[in-house]
Structure of Tetraspanin-7-like:
Amino acid sequence: MWCYRRILKISWTKHTSNEGVPGQLNKDRELLSTIKAKKFALCLLVIFIIELAVGIAAAVYKNDFHKGIKQLMRESMNKYETNEADRMAWDNLQTKLKCCGVDKNNDWILLLGKRPLSCCHATRDGSQPPEAIHCNSAKTGDEILYSDGCFDMIEYKAEEASKVLIGVGIGIAFVELIGIVLACWLASAIKSRS
């Protein structure tokens, strides 16, 4: 019992019986539990507000993001012949996404006067890929040439992934709201019990 007297800072000169100490301790525990529940609810509310603000900012600045990505892609296209990293990135991007250029397959012709081989593909499985002369002379709509621009393909892939992220975000927000309600309910239940 002496340790509880020390925790509660009850003086030995104060005439408190040993039966009164646990009662006082329990009252303080309930008060601490109420404060902890309210702090937890407040923390969840702050996190929820921050998530909401980030979501709104992402929606507002979506067009600026698109413009920035397009500008970076064009700058990288300009470095295609001089920078090995840009060349590898473009070849990999165009091969995997089956696209050519930023907006359309003529972007390369307008910029460099020729297309990279990664803009063209074999017409059948197992056949040889086209040669550079055929790739450069291909017109939009030809079978060997990828017709879509890479920015559109990246945008499509990002929108597909964002649907999953939005669903997960809504699920997490819903769980947080339930946590806020339950923490407030717990705090009021502890308060009304005491």
